[in-house]
Amino acid sequence: MVQESTTNHLYEILDETAEIIADHQDTTYLEALALTGENIYTTNIQQDALRQRLEPLYDRFFVEGMTAEDVRRAFQLAVLKGMKAAAQPQHQMTPDAVALFMGFLVNKIFPSHSFRILDEAVGTGNLLTAVLNQTNNQAEAAYGVEVDELLIKLSNTSANLQQWTVELFHQDALEPMLLEPVDLTIGDLPVGYYPEKNNAKKFRLGHNQDKLYSPYLMIEQGLKYTRQAGYLIYLIPNGLFDWDDDKELHGLLKDEAVVLGLLQLPQTMFKQEQHAKSILILQKQGQGVHKPEQAMLAQLPSFQNEKALAGVMQQIDDWFQEHLFREQ
Could you give the C-alpha distances from 300 to 56, 102, 163, 282, in angstroms and in order? Predict the structure, then answer.
């Protein structure tokens, strides 16, 4: 069974059982998706009245040769269906191609040794698990932060179905966390203003109460929870540095990090130009950290153009060998 048909098989079972639970319990599709996922990974059907309908479907879920990536893709398809129906703007998912490309970058940074990873805005867990699925079991610990109760339920369900152990923090990502510094911080940073002005005062970038940009504060928080010489990879809005009129973000990065790269995603991925995003790659200052002679700057081609994309990926690989690994 090829990956596409395996993914479709898993999606169809997730979708059908979520619909059954949603109809019976008069709940949303996304809430029901979290419940059906829990039924599968605990092998314990909580909805007793639905046992006869659900059990035969669950019995068909696991198929020979299925992978965690098959499960992630299937779960993602179901989440996308639920989000389209709910139409809640705070419920968004990192595009699949972008998540996989960020996984490629993580493999360039950690080609062989283990690491601890934090997703500062874990959402449904799609970005985090996409990265984990590409790292050949090198992640020795994974953490995620999410304030939205439904999203963190979905993230927990997705990770469990993929057999990943992820410690999730149900809290505001800008509040203190009981977490030792990690080797790698990632995140699809939210756009907008941070509403908690008192908490923002604890941040270097939070003193201008009229410009409490959430992504700025998230980057500062990420630097705090990343070990010295560790790495940060963020999906950022293209206007991130344009908003920095007072050069406060510039000053923070100059003092605490090295900008390794800025990769602009293809415009064709976004319906409107103002929603376009880029991938920002940072290394936190620390012993042995050197600023590369040249940062990695690129406009990525359409992910549908396999030949052009392969060429850019080769250039990125060459950059790591020439500018980063040569100095370590």
Answer: 45, 13, 32, 18
* Phi, psi (rounded to 5 degrees) for 275: -95, 0
d(CA 226, CA 182): 5
Question: pTM to 2 decimals?
Answer: 0.93
Percent helix / strand / coil, the chain, rounded to 5:
50, 20, 35
Question: What are the distances in angstroms from CA 3 to CA 9, 37, 71, 304, 305?
Answer: 10, 20, 10, 19, 21
Pairing of strands 257-264, 277-284: antiparallel
Mean pLDDT of 136-158: 94
Is pLDDT at 103 greater than 70 in this prediction?
yes
Question: What's the pLDDT band for 92 if we cut at 50, 70, 90?
Answer: low
Neighbour tally for 81: CB within 10 Å:
18
Q: Work out whether strand 166-170 and strand 257-264 pair parallel, antiparallel, or are unpaired.
A: unpaired
**CA 164/CA 159 separation, integer angstroms:** 5
